[in-house]
Design goal:
471 residues, four-stranded antiparallel beta sheet, 14 strands, 14% strand
Amino acid sequence: MVEQKTSISPRISRREVLKLGSYSLAALVAASCTRMGRQVLATLTPDTSAAPTQRPTLEPTESPTLVPPTPALTLEQQAAVAEYAPTLQAELGSKYANAYGINQKDIKLHKQILGGKYAFQVTEQGDPIAMLNEEGKWEDVPLKYLAQPFGMVMGSDTRENFSDVQWQKILVNNFTRATISPGLEWFESELTKGNIDFTRVHDQVDHLKAEGITDFVGHPLIDQRGLPDWLVNGNFSKEDLQKIMKNRIEQAIIQNPDIDMWVVINEPYLPPSINPDRSHDIFYKAWGSYDYITEAFQIARDISIREKRDVTLIFNDGDNHYAAGQTSESSRKIVKMLKDKNLIDYVGMQMHIGEWEKNAYETWMRDNISNEFQYYNDLNVPILITEISYYPSEEAKKLSDVEFNNRLAMIFKDIAGFAIDAGVKGMSYWDMTDYYEVDRNNEYTMFDKNGKPKKAFYEVRRAFFDRLLNN
């Protein structure tokens, strides 16, 4: 999560659209009937010089002629004949009009074909409203399909009520990855030493798998601000902590076989001069350095090999997405250390856009995010954006609803564009709706408290669509 500033230093693989085969069923049947009908028996002519019992010979038949195949429908033809159901048109148009504050009757659509592969219903402003699916039918445009041509996976966390039908619909329609945090945090899964219980994690995974989600991130194995009281107050030696850490990592990975992506370390130690809330890391104090992070990743890697599982390992931190961020320097140092030992698979940038002053995003972050992406690309460590959200400044909170949503949409569209251009491998949002976090943490997302998409959602879609259009 975002820390308060103490100082300021400062393709779609999308399921390919339906393509008919080279031969239609009618053509194949006609061809078969032609072959059978052309086998004509020759006229038998008696040979008086031969014995009367001699068997007659058959004249050779003509070679059968195939009926030319019926040409496959082009994508343009499919888009032309596919019905855009009035009920769907009304539903999608209403959501779009509500997000942009316009009259639904003023929405004018045209069909647009991209690269001979994808067909969309597009507004005059260039926003995709519906797409043609593999069954030749129009449907909503899910984020996950727009992201696939760029090799990116879209996700969200499960801190909201994962069994809520509305939440599920948003998740399943737009995302393929779920980040599991509730029930996995150390203080919750091992409330007393040795009594480990991941029941809540299993419930979430089982429920979401039944809804079609199969890609899970375990978040986190170790977070120095999410430790149980018995561990924080236990006055353990370094040797004790090594054993405790090993058991924690082993049990979490082994007991959760459906989770194959793990945030091994989240938000580690920072000096009190930078962030006093993160200066109490008991592991950092015992080791006297970040070397405990290397040991944790090595344990996780060894378990993966031993259990013959393809487990990917993530280092995750907040405020490491721009040069003046509180953790940018330490994040670079830790990732380089892990990369040198071949222990890291992804660096996680939380991307909580926290504004501690008016227009902090423009002043400090906007022109620097791509530079941080480039550093890790040069290091050859793939990037995941893991917890996107927006914490507005006091000035931003005074904006009108329209102005505020325009600002949110601008920031989220920027982030999506920077990520696409840098080849980021995944983007996950920290909560999908404003239902919980606005009142609790002043944190804003792409969907309002009622689960309706905001302008930010459509602008993120637009970031992907524009790049598909220009490729």
